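Moderator note: this is an archived Q&A kept for reference. The question asked for a predicted structure of one protein chain; the sequence and the answer are reproduced below.
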Amino acid sequence: MGWHAAMPPAPIDAPAIVPYVAAASTSAAITAMMYLETPPRLIETAIFSVMPDKFRRKGVRTDWADANRPGIATDSFIEGPSFDKDGNLYVVDIPFGRIFRIARDGEWSQVAEYEGWPNGLKIASDCRILVADYMHGIMELDANAGRIKPVLTARNSESFRGCNDLHLASNGDVYFTGQGQTGLHDPSGRVYRLASNGRLDCLIDTGISPNGLVLDPTETVLFVAMTRDNAVWRLPFMKDGSVSKVGRFCSLFGTSGPDGMTMDAKGRLFVGHASLGHVFVFAPNGELIARIKSCAGPNCTNVAIGGAKKDRLYITESATGSVLVADISDL
């Protein structure tokens, strides 16, 4: 799929997007984050596509928005970007229980709508589409039929605390987070592994708002965004599959924190930040090497690597319903 440095015209029925300008103090603080000798590079973004007006639920209140965005008009809140084998980008709309497909040319179509709060979405190599639903648990989407069904809704008869995101291992294991309303006041968030044989393990039950997660290229270390700790934790696996020596890989700042993440083949971690209007890129040693700046708004909630050469980063800017794109080919 082609990419253009200039912002393409918005579709006729899409809202105008005013370029987001970060405060000077924020930019200065970002450059003061941890690096060794070379300051982090700045990479700009452009608009790939914006949710059309016909799909926006303007003036409609939801329980999700009342709890998570009180007092803020919320006609959509997109998340969970993931590409299928044909290059279509899937995203979810949390408060309205919807899943969309965005074609390579940026055109939106609704795949499903149901009673739930889909948050994370991943498409497996066998085309299976799994969803982390805050209300229900782990779900599976039949995109052709537009239906969704439960895969895992409880552990030992106890419901999950609000599933947030998931990651698929090469062997079919599913890693997912139970975030709920946990935070520094209640460090009881959980990280799970659902093995391909059906075994469910709780890897951590002391998480501070566990959110996005991703395995490193060797699949021996799991990285988890702890949003309300404003940090990314590093979870090394032991021989028996448990985790030990868990530590903070990096720390950030802001009114929210790290959200969705992905990692490239070189082990560089891309971290969407839900309030700073950036995706931060960390080297395998934890050094900040680049910052990718939103051109649409501050809520960079999730990321996915795409393009024929896997050299484009796609970012959901949730509050404006925008999908951004950045060229990471020479990073």
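Archived answer notes: The CA atoms of residues 220 and 240 lie 12 Å apart.
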